[in-house]
Amino acid sequence: NAVVNQDGELDVSGGGHGIDITGDSATVDNKGGMTVTDPDSIGIQIDGDKAVVNNDGDSAISNGGTGTQINGDEAT
Q: What is the pLDDT of residue 11?
């Protein structure tokens, strides 16, 4: 049951991952901005069921990047 509260700027590039969680019932509250650029770069990645992601900040996704990727069931 991971919980991540992101309040600042999240900048991801070069194929990196900003927040990477493996496990069920994870929660991410992103209140800051998120900028993701370049192929294979992922701002938030969760591998698990019943994930909850709240993105309240501005997101800028470009050049083949992925903002949020959830691999699992029953995500909200």
A: 98
pTM given for the model: 0.93
Amino acid 61: pLDDT? 98
Report the C-alpha gap between 42 and 19 in whole angstroms.
Answer: 8
Q: Which of 40, 37, 33 is nearest to 58 (CA)?
A: 33
Q: Could you list the beta-strand ranges (E) of the chain.
A: 3-6, 10-12, 17-22, 27-30, 34-37, 42-47, 52-55, 59-62, 66-71
Tell me the C-alpha distance between 11 and 35, whole Å: 5
**Length in residues, the chain:** 76
Instruction: Write down the domain spans for the chain.
Output: 3-65
CB 19 within 8 A of CB 43: yes
